Amino acid sequence: MRASLLQIGVDEGESVDSRRRRVASLVREQAGADLVVLPELWTTGAFAYESFTAEAEPLDGPTHEAMAEAAADAGVWLHAGSIPERAAPDSGSAAGEGPLYNTSLVFSPSGDLAAAYRKIHRFGFDKGEAVLMGAGADLVTVRLPGTTLGMATCYDLRFPELFRGLVDAGAETFVVPAGWPERRRAHWTLLARARAVENQAYVLACGTAGTHAGVPQAGHSIVVDPWGEVLAEAGSGEEILTVDLDPAKVAATREQFPALKDRLLGLETPRR
């Protein structure tokens, strides 16, 4: 399986519409890949909190339309990173005032929406995303030919119990779009490898380049195999990282070193 991670540079001088068109063109250029992955909140920038409300869109909004067409044109599975989603308002809310979510979208090679994942762990403690956006409640997996994707987003990477849940749901490849800051880049690499080792799964972690609202981004998108070996790692600028994966290596690793069978502490035994 060939995967291409598009480490998009977010330039505050580039409009959201222009970046959306540019990224759609980059996705189309990945024809021949099986899976293409985009970063978190690449339309606005992960730290551009003041833009979330203005640029929020419904699931079937302009990013959905552009990415669905690009996936179909390239004939690829596309994890289109995440968008600031404006959900439909509750029955008691004023029109147009539905909650915001940090929502990832996955499209099939025919351009159909295969899955959407609302980020569960929101970053910011008592400010930023943590107060502006709602928390997702559902674990999401997507079955591709040869592997099952488990979906997580950025700050989720710090919470191993989420990944254990995804393993129990059948995940063999974790896809983690992010807008990770440069000042904590060492954590990004360490956590990506840890999630791969402890779950004996591939990790495809795709970050952004550039600076979001004055916060320099780490870049360094990374692909880690089920033994924790780094197969490929990007630099700090905009870059496309392409790597060939062997989906059978997940089952082989879990058979050769069956640590997941020894889980205790009241956790469920992984389904097989």
**CATH-defined topology:** Nitrilase/N-carbamoyl-D-aminoacid amidohydrolase
CATH superfamily: Carbon-nitrogen hydrolase
Biggest sheet strand line-up: 6-5-4-3-1-15
How many discrete domains? 1
Q: Oligomer, anyone?
A: single chain
Number of helical segments with 4 or more residues:
7
Work out the radius of gyration: 18 Å
| Through-space gap between termini | 22 Å
Residue stretches low in confidence (pLDDT < 50, at least 5 long) are none
- The backbone outline, from C-alpha atoms, is globular
Q: Structural class, from secondary structure content? A: alpha/beta
Extended strand count? 15
Strand content: 25-35%
The top-level CATH class is Alpha Beta
Q: Give the helices and strands as they follow along the chain.
A: EEHEHHEEEHEEHEHEEEEEEH
**Annotated CATH architecture:** 4-Layer Sandwich
State the major sheet. 6 strands, mixed
Measured as a percent range, the helix fraction is: 25-40%
Domain CN hydrolase: 1-247
Pfam families: CN_hydrolase
Protein name: Carbon-nitrogen family hydrolase
Keywords: Hydrolase
